[in-house]
From TrEMBL:
PROSITE patterns: HTH_TETR_1, HTH_TETR_2. Gene3D superfamilies: Homeodomain-like, Tetracycline Repressor, domain 2. Residues 40-59 bind DNA. SUPFAM superfamilies: Homeodomain-like (SSF46689). The gene is mftR. This is Mycofactocin system transcriptional regulator. Signal peptide: none annotated.
Length: 204
């Protein structure tokens, strides 16, 4: 799942001012160099030239920093799905929305890869990530529920939300393991495979 990233060109050192993107970039660089568990909020604040109190104006905790402005991305995906014409099939709408959510500029490819390695390969972040995944699935479930005329908490919207998350995470796992692969192509392939497996022609 794509995360809003900051400028990776920012060097560590004391800065006169900062913002969430710059602070996130500094923290991510420290996580990569030292390991997530070895870096404290005080370390990040010192590297950014700010106080500990200022850090918490941007992020509720150290665990939230690698996610960047994830809430803004969720809002964008919710708006994207709300604008999908009703004649677009549900499967196609979800396929396109998930790909768009995970699309990022070519120049951010390596920084995004490093960010996702921290998020998906750090045991400490696994429990915290579950909360983010739940929020992401909820956006999918709300859209599916509206399309099907059922509550988003019903089994079908929830199942589809989990399925879309599974496709995304499987694509990220493959992408992190193979530097030459393209993330959006992997996500597209995941949807294609799911459609093929569960198509009526393959029903037994």
């Amino acid at each position: 799942m794509a995360i809003v990233s900051g400028s990776e060109g920012h060097r560590l050192g004391r800065a006169r001012s900062t913002d969430a993107a710059t602070l996130g970039s500094i923290g991510l660089q420290l996580f990569i160099e030292r390991g997530f568990d070895e870096v404290t909020v005080d370390d990040i604040a010192a590297a950014a030239g700010i106080g500990r109190r200022t850090f918490f104006r941007y992020f509720p905790s150290k665990n939230d920093l690698p996610w960047g402005d994830f809430d803004a991305l969720l809002a964008m995906m919710r708006e994207y799905l709300a604008a999908v014409p009703p004649e677009i099939p549900l499967f196609d709408a979800l396929h396109d929305a998930v790909i768009e959510f995970n699309r990022f500029p070519d120049e951010e490819r390596e920084s995004h890869r490093r960010r996702m390695e921290v998020l998906l390969r750090t045991p400490t972040l696994v429990a915290h990530s579950a909360l983010r995944y739940q929020a992401w699935r909820q956006v999918i479930a709300e859209f599916v529920g509206r399309r099907l005329g059922v509550p988003p908490t019903a089994l079908q919207p929830q199942t589809i939300g989990w399925a879309c998350l599974g496709i995304s995470l499987a694509a990220y796992d493959e992408w992190l393991a193979h530097e030459d692969h393209v993330l959006t192509v992997l996500i597209d392939q995941g949807f294609t495979d799911i459609r093929a497996v569960f198509s009526p022609a393959n029903a037994h």
